[in-house]
Amino acid sequence: MTDAGFSEKGNEAGQIHHPVLVNEVLAALACRPAAKKIYFDCTVGMGGHTEAILNATAPDGKVIGIDRDEEALRLAEKRLIALSDRLVLRKASFREIGRVADELQIKEVDGVLFDLGISSFQLDQPERGFSFQRPGPLDMRMDRRQKESAADWVNRLSQAELTDLIQRYGEERWAKRIASAILRHRQEKGAIVRTEELEGIIWRATPANSRHGRIHPATRTFQALRMAVNQEMEQLEAGLEEAISLLALGGRLAVISFHSLEDRLVKQTFRKWAGPKKENRFAPPSEEPGSPRRFINLYKKPIVAGPEEVSFNPRARSAKLRALERAA
Question: Is the pTM of this model over 0.85?
Answer without folding.
Answer: yes
